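Project standup — Tuesday

K.O.: blocked on the structure for the chain from last sprint. Re-posting the sequence here as requested.
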Amino acid sequence: MTLQDQLKIMRDATVARMPGTIMKVFTDSINTIKRNRLKENALQLGETIPNIPLTNVQGLNIYLNSLIRSNYLILNFYRGGWCPYCNMELREYEKLMYEFNEIGADLVAISSEIPELAKQTIGKNSILSYPVLTDNDALFMKAMGIVFRLDEASKREFVNFGMDFSKINGNENYELPVPAVYVINKEMKIVFVHFEEDYMTRLEPKQLLTLLKKETISKI
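H.V.: unblocked you, prediction finished:
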């Protein structure tokens, strides 16, 4: 089953069980992100990413340039281990890691959830073999231009679901990244971008693998 198949099942089940008023809150939030042109204002193809330190699950600082061991480094920005759509995506990349490595591509997953929760995210997804890093206070993701602040209606619904972002992200900022995938080369230049305002939609990892194999990386 492809990631798209899994996402559709999850999306359909969510829409079926969740009250329309709540779905409207999250749909309105997605539309606000689009209206704010976050996608257009984020870092684009050919630009160089900042080498801002991230934190691994042991609490140590990690710079992305130290993780570029081959031709490409895939940066998968996920919302947090609390997000079922993100977990599906992380697992699908894990299934393909051997094939990605065979063509000279490594992967790192990045969120703003605290390292203790990032460690739990690794375990709940069949032990991820690639680094799962924390972007403290979303400083790196802000520099990338992929962060948005939850509106008051969304905050209220997340609280109703028992989501305490002060504990999840370690601050009161209520900021999340859009699900985005960037690929950078050895010079830390962006050679591929996939940006999703809709958190229920993701890039199919096999599609990225095919592009990398053919060296036909482009923005899709």
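K.O.: great, moving the ticket to review. Strands lie at 54-55, 61-62, 72-77, 105-111, 132-134, 147-149, 175-177, 180-184, 190-195. The domain at 3-214 is CATH 3.40.30.10 (Glutaredoxin).
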